[in-house]
């Protein structure tokens, strides 16, 4: 329960502020003068060094699986998570940022990230922040006209995308005449086709840009708190996508409010799968980084054992990662609930009764502010 007091009350505004003191993470951000997202990554790299930071599930193979109705679906055979430490993630981001400079990208020039939620997304964003480059976030599910609008309105010359989304640019580039460079995040299994694109546009793999930055002499260009960090485009569900300008201070202020309201601990593990193009997921993951919480990436198609891309007998991402916290939306929660209930209901009467008892027990103690370590095992 939080208490608040009125700090402003007039004809135009009624403002409340919590009377509770700021939590430890908030205080640490003040003590370290962290007023930009660039400073967040610098701080955590020095503080958490060899701790797990960003994790990616390894895809061993993609196989055909025949369903009961005779249809054949493509399914993933997945391995364990492969991790970058905080130091490795920061170093990769720094090299990526310098690699962008080598390609001709300048500080304070916008750069689009049009890709699915993944470790490379976060690394690319922080690489841009290290060179004071605002990122333009575009939903990976946005239609071609919406993507073209976001790119042309922000006058970008460089786009960061993924193996799966790259083919869109064979037609999109005609609508985006300023784009000269496309950087794609490689697929784990398939080689990316880079022919058939508009002449004069460079198509480069993500890791090549990182490698280029390793030998670069460019220095970091730290942004200021009032500099624009993100131009965050809406999903376009109510019309043309609209770009929202977020300064570094905006993002840091939101992070401080988040850590004061939601307790997160260094021994937590976050599973990240919602769009990083939305401020909800981006701030949640930024808070986890600031707190030293490892982030293992997933997708709605591989999240749980019964997800549509999981091969029969293979474990979903959540089962392997064992996260203690996650962001979500009602649709995903419904899928998770259905998956759990289907598995429980397929068991014996004793197992169903035991699950119900333990679930109610855990809910009772969590609501009182306690942990249940024995059940959590």
From TrEMBL:
This protein's UniProt keywords: ATP-binding, Fatty acid metabolism, Ligase, Lipid metabolism, Nucleotide-binding
Catalytic reaction(s) noted: a long-chain fatty acid + ATP + CoA = a long-chain fatty acyl-CoA + AMP + diphosphate
The keyword Ion transport appears for this protein: no
Residues annotated as domain AMP-dependent synthetase/ligase: 74-344
Enzyme Commission number, as recorded: 6.2.1.3
Pfam families for the chain: AMP-binding (PF00501)
Molecular functions (GO terms): ATP binding; long-chain fatty acid-CoA ligase activity
Keyword set includes Nucleotide-binding: yes
Domain of life per record: Eukaryota
Span of the signal peptide: none
Family classification: Belongs to the ATP-dependent AMP-binding enzyme family.
Name this protein carries in UniProt: long-chain-fatty-acid--CoA ligase
